[in-house]
Amino acid sequence: MDPVLAGDLARLPELLQAARDLAVREVAGLAVRPVAASGPAPGRDPLPAAGVGGDAALARFAERWAPLFSGSAGPRYLGFVTGGATPASVAGDWMTAALDQNLSGAGGSRAQELERETVAWLRELFGLGEAHSGAFVTGAAMSNTVGLAIGREWAGERLGVDVSRAGAAALGPLDVLSGSPHSSIEKAMSVLGLGRDRLRPVPLLPGGREAVDVAALETALAGAGGRPVLVVANAGTVNTVDFDDLRAVAALKERYDFWLHVDAAFGAFAALSPEHAALVDGLDAADSVCVDLHKWLNVPYDAAVQFTRRRDLQLAVFHNASPYLGLPGSDPDFLHLTPENSRRLRALPAWFSLVAYGRDGHREVVERNVALARRLGAGVDALPGLELLAPVRLNVVCFTLATDPSAKRVAALARAVAASGEAYVTPTVYGGMPGLRAAFTNWRTTEADTDRVLAVLAAASGRGS
Ligand SMILES: *Cc1c(COP(=O)(O)O)cnc(C)c1O
């Protein structure tokens, strides 16, 4: 064994202790460090020929890279839809790495059953019935891709084409209908050979809503002339957290033949709050469902879950039979269900967080985040320099400058907020209008944090940036 490697083996407890000490220092610093990293990236070091050992690597990382990372795990990073990592989920992630299981199949481990247990808990958390099976994937974009891949296979079933063997081209054009789809839907369509141009936008409800007009969706379905189509319903849009009426969309299945995929990346968490659970009524009727976990479950990147009612079709798409892997049985190994073959025990951080905090603990995070979004929304509304672009429906505040909200001035405002080190918000365009979004998803955020964000917004917008 390389002597440096042998030395690390001998000192493994000390090395892990040192890594723990650095992590504790970094995480404790989240409340005070600048929220966004500033300064240029360092130049590249050459590939090390001789290694320096784990302790020296840790020291080099702490000195050279850690200061350039963002405080995105902290309480005032409100960009995109960014969750943090609960304490127990970090412990679970460390165990995932330390025990290094390959979740592709049983292979001498029962770790697969832990993923199945976690999927069953999540299914219950989001109000899905037992007809849905699920698997962990890396994120909502991948969950959407898998859901649409199963939908593509379903379209083949309707047309008498085995897509997994004959290829997507054998299907002919397959339209995807959606009101306000996330950008990852088009990416999935590109990956799956459906083509980005087959996305058919469906009109939205009037009054600046991002929810689909169900009557217009029905018209579009009637216009499909009996050809199978995929419908992507949206449960929680990124700008204003609007929800399609899932019940009404699902009811159309009585008259039209379509695959219903619901992108509930973070909106599914409305199910945890009695006040908002009605927003996801009808979710169970979907053929496939996407839920992100590194957003509102607050587990470390990367984790999402993918549910479907048609595991048989999922198996047709993803099965990976070989002499040494064997044929998939009645409870197929995960390598037959997702794009990956080898995969990490991505479920363990979620398992830890659900065991540690339960449904109640996670509900408290969701309800607090919603209350804080309302608090910031009311504050923004009261500022002379800013105005809300939409009511605060759940956990996102979408707003812009009260005067001359050009893309340039709005981007400058976002930069000024980031440069303050106090907060981070991200630009968007909503209804053709440049604006900013502040998304509350982090388990740590408090009223005091929210008031600090409001203060920096007041200062930056007051300066006429
Ligand atoms: C974040 C998000 C996605 C993409 O999720 P990733 O985890 O970044 O892959 C898809 N849909 C919606 C609605 C989202 O909010």
Automatic annotation (TrEMBL):
<protein>
    <submittedName>
        <fullName>Aspartate aminotransferase family protein</fullName>
    </submittedName>
</protein>
<dbReference type="InterPro" id="IPR015421">
    <property type="entry name" value="PyrdxlP-dep_Trfase_major"/>
</dbReference>
<keyword id="KW-0663">Pyridoxal phosphate</keyword>
<dbReference type="GO" id="GO:0008483">
    <property type="term" value="F:transaminase activity"/>
</dbReference>
<dbReference type="InterPro" id="IPR021115">
    <property type="entry name" value="Pyridoxal-P_BS"/>
</dbReference>
<dbReference type="InterPro" id="IPR010977">
    <property type="entry name" value="Aromatic_deC"/>
</dbReference>
<keyword id="KW-0032">Aminotransferase</keyword>
<keyword id="KW-0456">Lyase</keyword>
<dbReference type="InterPro" id="IPR015424">
    <property type="entry name" value="PyrdxlP-dep_Trfase"/>
</dbReference>
<dbReference type="Pfam" id="PF00282">
    <property type="entry name" value="Pyridoxal_deC"/>
</dbReference>
<dbReference type="GO" id="GO:0004058">
    <property type="term" value="F:aromatic-L-amino-acid decarboxylase activity"/>
</dbReference>
<keyword id="KW-0808">Transferase</keyword>
<dbReference type="GO" id="GO:0030170">
    <property type="term" value="F:pyridoxal phosphate binding"/>
</dbReference>
<dbReference type="GO" id="GO:0006520">
    <property type="term" value="P:amino acid metabolic process"/>
</dbReference>
<feature type="modified residue" description="N6-(pyridoxal phosphate)lysine">
    <location>
        <position position="295"/>
    </location>
</feature>
<keyword id="KW-0210">Decarboxylase</keyword>
<comment type="similarity">
    <text>Belongs to the group II decarboxylase family.</text>
</comment>
<dbReference type="InterPro" id="IPR002129">
    <property type="entry name" value="PyrdxlP-dep_de-COase"/>
</dbReference>
<dbReference type="GO" id="GO:0019752">
    <property type="term" value="P:carboxylic acid metabolic process"/>
</dbReference>
<dbReference type="InterPro" id="IPR015422">
    <property type="entry name" value="PyrdxlP-dep_Trfase_small"/>
</dbReference>
